[in-house]
Amino acid sequence: MSARAVSMLLFVLAIMGAAVAQEEGRLVVLTHDSFAMTEEVLEAFEAQTGVTVEILRSGDAGQMVNQAILSKNNPLGDLLYGVDNTFLSRALHGEIFAPYESPALEQVDANFIPDDSFRVTPVDYGDVCLNYDIAYFEAHELALPASLRDLTDEAYRGLLVAENPATSSPGLAFLLATIAEFGDDGDYTYLDYWQELDANDLLVVDGWSDAYYGEFMVTGRDSGTRPMVVSYASSPPAEVYFSEDPDSGAITGAIVGDNMCFRQVEYVGVLAGAANETAARQFIDFMLSPAFQEELPLNMFVFPVREGVMLPAVFAEHAVIPENPAYVAPAEIEAKREGWIQAWMEVMLR
Amino acid sequence: MRARLRDFWLLIYLIPLAFLGVLFVYPLLSILDLSLRPAGALDLSGFVRLLSTDYYVGTLLFTVYQATLSTAATLLLATPCAFVFARYRFRGKSLLMSLATLPFVLPTIVVALAFATLLGKKGLLNDLAQTLFSLDYAPVQLERTLAMIIIAHVFYNFAVALRIISGYWATAGFSVEEAARCLGADEGALWRDIRLPLIRPALLSAGLLVFIFSFTSFGVILILGGIRFATLEVQIYYQAVNMFNLPLAAALSLVQILGMLAMMMIYTATQKKMQLQLASGAATSRRALTGTERLAVGFCVALIAGLLIAPLIALVLRSLLAAGQLDVANYLSLTEKSRGSLLFIAPLESIFNSLRFALLAMIAALILGLIASYMIERPGRLARLADPLFMLPLATSAVTLGFGFIIALDEPPLNLRASWLIIPISHTLVALPFVIRSVLPSLRAIPPSLREAARTLGAGSLDTLLTIDLPLLGRSLVVGATFAFTVSMGEFGASLFVAQRESVTIPVVIYRLIGDPGQASYRQALAMSVVLMLVCACGFIIIERLRIAGVGEF
User: Fold this and answer.
1) How many CB atoms lie within 10 A of CB B194?
2) CA A170 → CA A37, A164, A246, distances in Å?
3) Do A5 and B11 touch (CB under 8 A)?
C-alpha cells in the first residue's frame, strides 16, 4: 500500500515539475526585487531575437548574489543583473560569471569598468546622497552642509535621519562614504565621526522606506520630523515625477558636495553554465543600447552608463550628479565590510 | 476488511507528512547540511562563536524575554474578550471579530506609519493630550521602545488568541458553569475553578502560536523597535544575507528551531494533563442582561476599538487626507496601470492574484490540517513526533528556507524554485500550524462516547465524521480557514521570489509603491493597504457564511 502512495506522490510531483519544465528560446534574467523596465522595450528585444525574456526577482541585492552563488552548479538563470560595487567582490569571488566583453562597452566611460577580466558589464549607476526639505532650509535661513564634517555642527542638530548599514543598501553606501572621508585607522576614524553624529542627535532607522516616509519631513506632507535624509541623488526628480502636481516644481533637493555621496554602479554578467549563453550575450549588448539605457531613469531612478544618452525632461531639469563622489575599492569593501559594520554596530547600538 | 481500512487511513495520513517532508524538511536539511559541512567536513565554528559571544547569548535572552512579555500581554487582554465573544450576543459582534483580525495582513511598514499617526511625537494622542492638559511637550514617547514592540505584537496577535479561545469556549459550552452557579459559586470562583481550567487547552494552543510568532518577529523589531533591538530572526537574516556567514546563520537557525521544539514538548506534556472532554454540543451565547454583563461587553468593545481599530482608522484617514484635505485621487488611480513597466500591473489586478493564492492555500491547509490533526490526535509515537514537525515552518527563518528551496528544489520532478507554485506552497506551510492549533483542542474535546454511540446506532466511520466530528469542529475549522486565508493575503516574501505577472500580489504592490520616492506613490501605497483590509474583511464574512451553509449551526 505505501509503495502505491509513494508512486502516487511521485506522479503528482512529476506533473508539477513538467508544468515548469524548460522551454526553448527562453532567457531567464536573475535580478533584485526593485527591477523595473518598460514592457515595450523588452518586447522589442524579443521581436529582434525571437527569445522570450523572463525576469526572476530574487529578494534584495545581497539575497540575489547569495542565491546565485548557492546555485552555481545549476544556475537559476542565464544572466544576473543588479549586483552593485558593494557586493561585486562577493559575486566575483563566488566564481559565478562567465566572461563576456560587449562591443557596446566602447560607448561607456572606462571608469565604470571594474577590471579587464570582463566578468561583469556596468549598466547603470546612482549616487547615495543627503536629501533635504527645501522649504525648511529656506524658512530657517539655514545653509546646506558643505561637507560630511559639517553635519556634526550644532546648526544641524537633530535634523538628519540615516539608515542602518547592516540592513539597508543606502545605509551601507552612506557608511562607505564616511569611511572614504575619515578612514578606518588613525586618530580620528569614521567611528569617531559617527559618535559625533550620534551626539548631534542623529536618528538611525532600519530601512529606506521607514526613513523616507516615516521620519523625513517634507513640508506639506503629514509625516516625519527631520528635514534631512540619506537617500539618492535621483530622489528629488522622482519626487517631482511622482508628485500629484508635477508642474509645481521640486520640493526636495540633493546635496552633492565633494566626497559627500557614494556611487553605486550596477553590473550585469552571464552566469557560468547558462542554458542560453548566446541570448544572454545578446541581452547584455541590448542593455547597453540607447533603447534600454534611455528607459533606466524613469524605471529604476538610476543613470545610464552609456555616454550621450538623452535624459528624460524631469531628470534633465531636476537631477544633479555629484562630480566627486566618495570612492572605496570593491575588493576593500568585500574584505572589510563585516568588520566595518560590526564596529559601527558596537559604537552605535550599545 | 478491517486491515484494509487501517491501511487506507495510514495512506491518508501520509499525505500531509509527504507534503511537509518533501517541501519543507528536505529543503531545510539541504541548506543546513550545506551550511554546516561546507567542505565535506563538519564546521561547527558557528556554534562556538554563538555560545562564546555575549552578544548572541544576549540576543537569545532578549528574544525569549520580549516573546514572553508579548504572549502574556496578548493572553491577558484577549481572554476576557474571548469570554464575552463566546458568552454574549451583541450587535456588531462578527464585524468586530473581522476588524480585530485585519492587523494580521498588514505589512509592518504600513503599520508603523499608522502607529506614527496615532502614537508618534506629532501623533493624534499627543495632540489630544497637549490640548487637554495644555502641555508644551509630547507626553507619549513610545517610538522605538520595548513597549512599542509589545504593543505591536499584541496588535498583530490579539485576533489569534481571541479567535482560538472563543472558538473553543463556544464548543465547550457553559453547562458546567451553570451547574456551579446553582451550587453557589461566585464570579471569582467561577473564573478560578471553572472557566480558566476549562479553556486551558485553548489558552495553551493560542499562547504557543503567539509566543512563536513573537519569538520569530522580524519587521516589528526592526521598524517599530528600532535598530537597537535584535531577535534571533534579525540576526539570521543579517548573517545569511549581509555577511553570507552560513555556518553562523545555520547555528542560529538551529537554536531557534530547537528552542521551539523545547516549547512544543512542554506544551504537549502539559496539555495532555489538562484536557477535559466536555463538549456539550450547545454554543449558548445570549444577550447581556445585567449591568455587569453589559459593562463586560462594553469593556471588550472599547478595548478592541482602542487597541486594534484606532490604528486602522488612523491608516484609513491617512490614506484619504492630503495636507488636511479630502483627496481620493490615489484611490481612483489604482485601476490604472500607471507605469508601462513590466511587473507593474494595475494595482487592482493584484487583488485577483492575491485571492487565487489565498484560496489555494486555504483549501490545501484545511485538508492537510484536518488530516494532520486526526493523525496527531491518535495515540502513539508518530503523533508525538508529527505535532512539533507541523509547527516547524513557523519557527524557520524565511531566508534560510528560501536558500533551501533554491538548492533543493532545482531538478525535475521538483523543479519548483522558479514556479508560481512555490507561493501557495509556502503559504500553506505557514497556514498549516494555524489550522492544526485551531482544530486540535476541539477535536480532543469530542467525547469518545459520542462516536461510540453513533457507531452503535450503525453509523460508519464516514457517517461519524460527517454527522459528529465536522459539526463539532465547524467553528474551529472556520478559525483555521480564516487564518490560512489571512496568512496568505498578507505574506509577500514568497511572492517576491517569482516574477511572473500572476505573482504580483497586493503586498508586493504595496512594497513596490512604498519603495519609490514621491507623494503619489506613497499615497497609492496607503490606499492599497486599505484595499487589502477591505478585501480581507469581505473574505472573512464569506468564510463565516460558508460555515453556516456547509456545516450548519450547532
Assistant:
1) 18
2) 21, 9, 26
3) yes
- Are residues A221 and B323, on separate chains, in Cβ contact within 8 Å? yes
For the CA atoms of B532, B340, A250, A316, what is the dihedral angle to 10 degrees? 160
Phi, psi of B412, deg, nearest 5: -60, 145
Rounded to whole angstroms, how far apart are CA atoms B153 and B136? 31
Please report the residues numbered 16 through 35 in chain B whose beta carbons come closer than 8 angstroms to any beta carbon of chain A: 18, 22, 34
The whole-angstrom separation of Cα B523 and Cα B321 is 9
The backbone torsions φ and ψ at residue B404, rounded to the nearest 5 degrees and listed phi first, read -60, -45
Grid cell of B430 as nine digits: 505557514
Query: Does the pLDDT value for residue B303 go beyond 80?
Result: yes
- CA–CA distance, A207 with A212 (Å, rounded to integer): 9
- Mean pLDDT, residues B334-353: 71
Query: Which secondary structure element, helix H or strand E, spans residue A81, and what is its range?
Result: strand A79-84
Q: Which of B111, B234, B241 to mutate to test the interface with A (most CBs of A within 10 A)?
A: B241
pLDDT given for residue B195 in this prediction: 85
Compute the 3-state secondary structure of chain A and give helix, strand, coil in percent, each to the nearest 5.
Answer: 45, 20, 35
Report helix angle B246-274 to B26-36, nearest 10.
Answer: 140
Number of neighbours of residue A339 by Cβ within 10 angstroms:
10
CB atoms within 10 A of CB B192: 12
Residue B254 and residue B246: Cα distance in Å, rounded?
Answer: 12
Burial class (CB in 10 A: 0-12, 13-18, 19+), B376: buried
Query: What is the ipTM, given to two decimal places?
Result: 0.83
- pLDDT tens-digit map of B419-462: 788 889 989 998 999 899 888 888 887 888 888 888 888 887 77
Helix (H) or strand (E) holding B361: helix B349-377
The DSSP H or E segment spanning A280 is helix A277-287
Give the count of beta carbons closer than 10 Å to the beta carbon of residue B91.
7
Instruction: Count the Cβ atoms, other than its own, within 10 Å of residue A87.
Output: 26
Cβ atoms B364, B424 nearer than 8 A: yes
In whole angstroms, what is the distance from residue B257 CA to residue B400 CA? 12
Which positions ≥6 away from A44 have C-beta within 8 Å? Answer: A291
- All residues of chain B having their beta carbon less than 8 Å from the beta carbon of residue A62 are 241-242, 244
CA distance B99 to B44: 47
List of residues 6+ apart from A299 with CB closer than 8 A? A36, A37, A38, B339, B341
Q: Which residues in B50-85 are b (16+ Cβ under 10 Å) and which e?
A: beeeebbeebbebbbebbebbbebbbebbbebbbbb
Paired with B231 in beta bridges are: none
CB interface of B with A, residues 231-290, below 8 Å: 237-238, 240-245
State the residue for C-alpha cell 586618530: A187
For residue A197, give the H/E element and its range.
helix A190-199
Q: Which among B11, B402, B416 has CB closest to A1?
A: B11
Which residues on chain B are in Cβ contact (under 8 Å) with A204? 227
Of B341, B399, B406, the CB nearest to A37: B341
**Residue B464 to residue B470: CA distance in whole angstroms:** 9
- Rounded distance between C-alpha atoms, residue A212 and residue A218, angstroms: 9
Better-scored residue on pLDDT, A291 or B394: A291
Measured in degrees and rounded to the nearest 5, phi and psi for residue A226 equal -120, 125
Whether B238 sits inside 8 A of A166 (CB atoms) is: yes
> What cell does A172 get?
551601507
CB within 8 Å: A238 and B516: yes
A248 near B CB under 8 A: no
